[in-house]
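Notebook p. 47: complex prediction with zinc ion.
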Amino acid sequence: MRRIRSIHSSRLHSNAIPEKIVNRFSAMLRYLTVPVTAFQQNCSIVWCDATHRAAIIDPGGDLDTLLGKTQRLGLALEQIWLTHAHIDHAGGAGELAERLQLPITGPHPGDQFWIDGLPQQSAMFGFPPARPFTPTRWLHDGETVQIGNETLHVRHCPGHTPGHVVFHAPQIDRAFVGDVLFAGSIGRTDFPQGNHQQLLDSITQRLWPMGDQTVFIPGHGPESSFGRERRSNPYVGGT
Ligand SMILES: [Zn+2]
Ligand SMILES: [Zn+2]
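Predicted complex, structure tokens below:
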């Protein structure tokens, strides 16, 4: 497992997020996180509970499982949102878009070369062949995405990949951060165009301002809060 896990983070995570539906506050935004692929990537189905319109963040694979979940929840899946274009996050996006005629939103254009390299990524890591795609809409820092009546804010957080974005839902104090930050770790930066200092800057300048109370859903492993990571994360603790 070490070989395939090591694409994401500086440290290994043994405990994945238990599947759960989160419904806090009075906002009508809900989500269900489903680990997919051999990398146990945390794909999240997010939806507006007033309209039952859903978006899926990082459908890296296991599409039938994901579609089964959305169907059982009674949701209309309308959009694909991507944090970055590593195979376990974006590997199923092209096929899902084609199957259901869905638009793909994100990541930031800095990840174009990772999208172009999806076939090589799938071969290298033993994934099913990934279908190439062109995002319907690239994302940039400060933009928003909308599903039903709910709006999420986009922050560009380069470092792990140059085009990595995160999705912030302040109405439920949640952030979907992909491979930027993990409980007790941070994303790897030894890939082409990875940059350790840039990743630290993304975390401290673009994640921390969302507030210590913000719970984040990382690309792998369990949820945590920014406040907890600021206290105890060995890479960004004390920042
Ligand atoms: Zn990942
Ligand atoms: Zn990644």
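Notes: The two ends are 32 Å apart (CA to CA). The CA atoms of residues 25 and 172 lie 6 Å apart.
Next step: compare against the earlier run before touching the bench.
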